[in-house]
Amino acid sequence: METIDTLVDRYINYLLVEKGLSTKTIEAYSADLSRYTAYLSANGTGDVSENDTRLLLRYLIALRGEGLTPRSRARHLVTIRGFYRFLVQERILSADPAALIDMPKSGLRLPDVLSVNEVERLLKTPDTTKPTGFRDAAMLEMLYAAGLRVSELIGLKLLDVNLEAGFVRVFGKGARERIVPIGRHARNKMERYLAESRPELLKRITSPYLFIARAGKPMTRQGFWKMLKRYAQQAGIRKNVSPHSLRHSFASHLLEGGADLRAVQVMLGHVDISTTQIYTHVARDQLKRMHRKYHPRG
């Protein structure tokens, strides 16, 4: 078998070339795997094998002993799982020793997920009689309709939206492109924004960006965050609302409605389905409530 360092290099190259992950993500994965391989070496093994399950469990316990939070330990486990899956995929290992290891409790916590009622109240808050208010309303609608990251939202360009087909083209992490459908509410709001509000905001300036602030430039992340906080307060929402809250609500509401996890993964732009699986507890909670309410022995 190749040395563990060579295998890690092969995996990192795979993430970079075939998966197109960002430099920042690659650096995080490399750091996590370096820490894990150093632990393996310190515990008398310079190789990986199908029997690493106990070693991996001891490693996670060691991370806890070093004071790492459940969220940080969960991130390490996601990285190591991906590495072992790659080794199985390449037929270097015949079985995945990380497959049956559960996420640390409380790991990868979701921010506050808004209820459907709270989302509706939030979307109705902007003053749509003003061009800036209608732009804000269109941005909130698009964020929730397509489950975008805030960086993806503010980076959208006119050419990225096809209202006739009802799709938006998004460039996510690592410049990966995905196509996400948007519903009729978002389409209707976008049509009005493009026909009325955007020209008023631009005046005689031109801009390639879909949502514009001053001088045809895109809104900043901080500007959108402040705007969202203001509208959440006006809507009477007491939860800690962030731009990611609408992305999480998008995923959670789809799963509650019965959407396939793989489809949600594609729409969110997650490379690894284990990242999408953090939303499934919301759907499980909904199922538990339904069981208690409707089952005769619930």
Q: Can you walk me through this structure?
A:
- Strand 2 and strand 3 form a beta hairpin.
- This protein is mainly alpha-helical.
- The mean pLDDT is 84.
- The protein has 2 domains: 4-89, Tyrosine recombinase, N-terminal domain (DNA polymerase, domain 1, Orthogonal Bundle), CATH 1.10.150.130; 116-288, hpI Integrase, Chain A (Orthogonal Bundle).
- It has 13 helices and 3 strands; from the N terminus they run H-H-H-H-H-H-H-E-E-E-H-H-H-H-H-H.
DSSP, total strands: 3
Mean pLDDT: 84
Describe the biggest sheet?
3 strands, antiparallel
Strand content: under 5%
> How much is the radius of gyration in Å?
22 Å
- CATH hierarchy: architecture of the largest domain: Orthogonal Bundle
What is the end-to-end distance? 53 Å
Overall structural domain count: 2
The percentage helix is: 55-70%
Assign the CATH topology of the largest domain: hpI Integrase, Chain A
Q: What is the CATH first-level class name of the largest domain? A: Mainly Alpha
- Per DSSP, the total helix count is 13
Tell me the overall shape: elongated
Secondary structure class reads mainly alpha
Element order: H for helix, E for strand:
HHHHHHHEEEHHHHHH
CATH superfamily of the largest domain: Intergrase catalytic core
In short:
With 298 residues, the chain is mainly α. The chain folds into two domains: 86 residues, Tyrosine recombinase, N-terminal domain (DNA polymerase, domain 1, Orthogonal Bundle); 173 residues, hpI Integrase, Chain A, CATH 1.10.443.
